[in-house]
């Protein structure tokens, strides 16, 4: 007998009535999957520890992996974190938007949110529908990406429905995520040494330009060193179930010669006639578009019957770092 597991989740449009309903769900300690400009998140009242525990349970996430807290505006950051002059400068340039700051936490933040760390990660998101919910609820919302722990992050409401639909009831619709990779995380506890812990849409150069000082890259995320890091040291994975390998360059002729069971994922549409096993992330090679399409293409390929996905690295700096970081992590689990 085939056992079918029924989804309990429903997708809600961002109408005023629905926003009010979902705000009440959050105020009462429930979970709501929310659209953000980066990826969809799974949100709960950040100052309600019971509610935050539900996030870990729904995702199957270990409690030693801390959550990001989302607030409507800079003034609310001060309620949960100790700020410093650099926060204001960065907020002016990048908030609302895909930048997360790690700051010393205030006592009101439950330790489940920060995995017992004395710091908290916080950001002001720009997605208009999510902002409506933040405003209506009046809450700070803890929200990791809305995927089962270890799987590819979701960039549409359907992705959330497919992978968490049996665990959660409420999904807020906000269309496909515009950035497509998670926020840049900047550790700002030491103002003399701002350090990127996770590369994202906001680049090291852009941060340095605004701060007028050097911004460091945590060695685990640095592109030049990433190949040297043992996969087991990479704490996060964004892995499809299909084994994924990455290469510096792909060629159409190699794709044609390879097994038809291998899917070849190019950054830019290759010149020539594509075979059934060749795919690309952007027709022109535009890296913002590549980032936007990356997770949804990985999910799409993962739902096919490929025995392996062979993906090409992005070249260059800036957002290429974030793309390659996610590809490396997606591949890491498989090469353990
Ligand atoms: O774009 C994003 O940041 C998305 C959307 C939903 O906002 N969120 C997201 O959350 O990517 P998540 O849980 O997938 O990643 C959170 C990561 C943790 O795995 C950890 O690496 C880092 O943020 N983090 C959280 N709190 C931290 C802290 N106190 N110190 C250092 N890193 C922290
Ligand atoms: Mg995540």
Brief summary of the model shown:
With about 325 residues, the protein is an alpha/beta fold.
What key phrases describe this protein's structure?
Rossmann fold, 336 residues, binds threonylcarbamoyladenylate, alpha/beta, DHBP synthase, single chain, 2 domains
Fold and architecture overview:
- This protein has twelve helices and 15 strands.
- The chain is α/β, with parallel strands linked by helices.
- It folds into two domains: 10-217, DHBP synthase; 244-331, Rossmann fold (3-Layer(aba) Sandwich).
- A nine-stranded mixed beta sheet has the order 2-3-7-4-6-5-9-10-11, with helices on both faces. A four-stranded parallel beta sheet has the order 12-15-13-14. Strands 1-8 form a two-stranded parallel ribbon.
- The longest helix has 16 residues, at 287-302.
- The relative contact order is 0.15.
- Residues 221-235 have low confidence and may be disordered.
- Bound molecules: threonylcarbamoyladenylate and magnesium ion.
- Magnesium ion (MG) binds at residues 144-145, 153.
CATH architecture tag of the largest domain: Alpha-Beta Complex
The largest beta-sheet arranges its strands as 2-3-7-4-6-5-9-10-11
Strand content: 15-25%
Distance linking N and C termini: 35 Å
SSE order, one letter for each helix or strand: EHEEHEHHEHEHEHEEEHEHEHEEHEH
Number of structural domains: 2
Q: What compounds are bound to the protein?
A: threonylcarbamoyladenylate, magnesium ion
Q: Please provide the count of β strands.
A: 15
Overall pLDDT confidence: 92
Name the CATH superfamily assignment of the largest domain. Answer: DHBP synthase
Radius of gyration from the CA trace? 20 Å
Based on secondary structure, the structural category is alpha/beta
Q: Based on CA inertia axes, which overall geometry fits?
A: globular
